[in-house]
Every structure is written in C-alpha cells, then in structure tokens.
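A quick aside before the break. I want you to see a complete sequence-to-structure record at least once, exactly as it would be stored in a machine-readable document. Don't worry about memorizing anything.
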Amino acid sequence: MIVSCILGLYGLAILLPGLAVAIRRLHDTGRSGWWLFISLVPLIGSFILLYFYLQNSQPGVNQYGPNPKEPTSAVETPV
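That is the input. The structure line, written in tokens, reads:
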C-alpha cells in the first residue's frame, strides 16, 4: 500500500517535467507541442513521435525561439 502510494506520487512528480522536455524537443524541430497527442494513435503514433524527437533541430531561430545547439552572441566563459 505504501509502496504503491510512493510510486504514484513519483509518477505525478515526473509527469510535468517530462511533458515540458517533450514539448521543448518538438519546438526545437519547429513543431507545435500539440503533436504530442499523435502518440495516442495506436501503434504508428509513437513511432512518428520518436521520428520527430530524433530529427535535428532547425537551424537559426524559429517561432519558438533560438536553436539551443547554436552558440549565442554572448561570450561564454569555459568552466
């Protein structure tokens, strides 16, 4: 009973950050976060979403912001 409650709370605690990462990755490829719902299509939806995740980010700036892989204009100091 206690283990089940702990696992349920853990699942809820990682749900929101997991959604945020998934939507950010879709934004990096120039797609809306609504594409996340394609995973609800049986069998093929998850594969389409996986394909979107594996694509390279769009170069430059898109409607969701700059490409996180490209260097910024500010000088970054190495650590």
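Two observations worth writing down. The mean pLDDT is 86. The chain has one domain: 2-62. We'll return to this after the break.
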